[in-house]
Amino acid sequence: MLAIAILAAGKGTRMKSNLPKVLHSLAGKSIIDRVLSCTQGLRPNRRLIVVGHQANLVKESLKNHKDLDFVLQQPQNGTGHAIQQLSSKLKGFNGELLVLNGDVPLLKEETLSSLLKFHKESSSSVTFLSASLDSPKGYGRVFLDESGLVKEIIEERDCTIEQRKNKLVNAGIYCFNWQQLSDILNLLSRENSQNELYLTDTISLLKKALHYEVDNPIEVKGINDRYQLYECEHYIQEKLKFFWMKRGVSFIDPISCSLSEDSTFGTDVIIEPQTHLRGKCNIGNGCHLGPGSVITNSTLAENVLAIHSFINEAAIGNNTSIGPFAHIRPESNISKNCKIGNFVEIKKSVIGEGTKINHLSYIGDSYLGKSINIGAGTITANFDGKNKYRTTIDDYSKTGANSVLVAPIKIGSHVTIGAGSTISKDIPDKSLVVERSKPTIRTKSD
Ligand code: UD1
Ligand code: CA
Questions:
Q1: 0.85 cut: is pTM over it?
Q2: Sheet containing 314-316: which strands, arranged edge to edge?
Q3: Number of domains in the chain
Q4: Is the CB of 202 under 6 A from ligand 1?
Q5: Which atom in ligand 1 lies closest to the alpha carbon of residue 9?
């Protein structure tokens, strides 16, 4: 039997933030979400999350995980006190309790599997992850006896100067035999510099304590402040860019770009400076993104160009060019060979093959057919102050500069609309329509 407990009740004082520490995000995912996802494959019988500081916010952020059992720790008197709150929940539980600090987000599932395996084979009371760090600052130090068993963990602030030189640190990931742990859990004392109950003090109280050193110390990096948050973000970004470079993506200035783990790229994609991909994006072969584009949850087919533009929850077809300075908003589907030019905003619209919207337009709640030319400054007036209405324009039509199409409206195919027209009724196929008042021209009398 395996139960997993994640400690996420702390305030995260060193973050200097109104947001609970575990809700800060790394490459678009919260720290706690990352910790949780490395436990998925271990097939635990139970997953418990200890919450306290802003408990509701933390719970809300995890509401999609239906199996979680939240345990309230109020007040937050330390990591040992957090585990004491599990006693009633785990009454009669007979098995291993894997405890994860909620602020260690780069951990790999394989490492946890190895830890569990090692723990079971050694039949120890507790086995925890350790790492040898060149700069162990901030971590609890691990002290061994002559036989290699762990004698104790001493928090940095409780260490002597000599003890601080020890580079072997506690990663905050422990596998306990729950029966043995619960027997000594009430023996913890607050005699330490923080006047808290430390989970680390259980180590010297248990019969047999072992540590399991990780190969790559970055995996056990804990986040206590904004600099460590940045270090983890940097690590994730470097890894992602390296991965995609190996698969045929060029970055002109990778340091200025960011990627999400859920995005994929074809080959010969060029990513120019200050371009960011967020959420789940699928970018096809030969796309050229940036400089200065932000693409979120979107699919770009092949050879799409997107310069200085925002594309959000949209699909873009082959050879279409977007920008500079275009804003493609959710539920937009732009076909192949289109041109969406500068200062064009498109929202919740379908744009047919080969259609051009080159300058200064707003197209919202619309369906546009193929090979349409939208003149500069054409606006779909889709909102009457209360409701939104749809605009349809059929194939091969043209709107003149500064046309306003008042929705709901249907413009047929092969229609030409004269510049400056405000059109508020449907126009049949193959018509020419101009709506314009007669100019009044008078001679000026100085
Ligand atoms: C802890 C360990 C330290 C280890 C380090 C690894 C203790 C006493 N120290 O120190 O040996 O090297 O992690 O990263 O455990 N939390 C609660 N309730 C509380 C206090 C904390 O749930 O009352 C949670 C926090 O939200 C956090 C985790 O426990 O997710 C760790 O707490 P934190 O205060 O960051 O411990 P460290 O000082 O980093
Ligand atoms: Ca920490």
A1: yes
A2: 264-265, 282-283, 299-300, 314-316, 332-334, 350-351, 366-368, 391-393, 409-411
A3: 2
A4: no
A5: 22
Q: 3-class secondary structure for 128-166?
A: EEEEECCCCCCCCEEEECCCCCEEEEECHHHCCHHHHCC
Pairwise CA distance, residues 347 & 401, whole Å: 20
CA of 179 to the centre of ligand 2 (A): 26
Give yes or no for residue 81 CB within 6 A of ligand 1.
yes
Residues 278 and 309 both lie in one domain: yes
Find out whether the beta carbon of 139 lies less than 6 Å from any atom of ligand 1: yes
Selecting among 211, 276, 359, 414, the annotated active-site residue is 359
Q: Is 40 exposed, middle or buried (0-12, 13-18, 19+ CB in 10 A)?
A: exposed
The CATH code of the domain that includes 315 is 2.160.10.10
* Alpha carbon distance 236, 239 (integer Å): 5
Predicted pLDDT at 382: 96
53 belongs to the catalytic site: no
Residue nearest to ligand 1 atom 21, measured at CA: 10
Per-residue model confidence (pLDDT) at position 7: 98
Cβ–ligand 1 distance for 306 under 6 Å, the answer no
Q: How far does the centroid of ligand 1 lie from the alpha carbon of residue 243, in Å?
A: 32
pLDDT in tens, 27-76: 999 999 999 999 999 999 999 999 999 999 999 999 999 999 999 999 99
47, 57, 381 from 209: Cα distances, Å = 23, 35, 71
Model pLDDT for residues 408-418, shown as the tens digit of each residue = 999 999 999 99
Residues 375 and 283 grouped into a single domain: yes
Asked if 86 and 191 sit in the same domain, the reply is yes
Atom 34, ligand 1: which residue's CA is nearest?
A: 10
Residue nearest to atom 19 of ligand 1 (CA): 78
Pocket test for ligand 1, best of 6, 36, 77, 79 (most atoms within 8 A of CB): 79
Cis, bond preceding 20 (omega within 30 deg of 0): no
Domain, as residue range, for 211:
2-226
3-state class of 202 per DSSP? helix
Are the beta carbons of 126 and 203 closer than 8 angstroms?
yes
For residue 139, the ligand 1 atom closest to its alpha carbon is 12
Same domain? For 86 and 194 the reply is: yes
107 lines ligand 1 (CB under 6 A): no
DSSP secondary-structure letter at 14? G
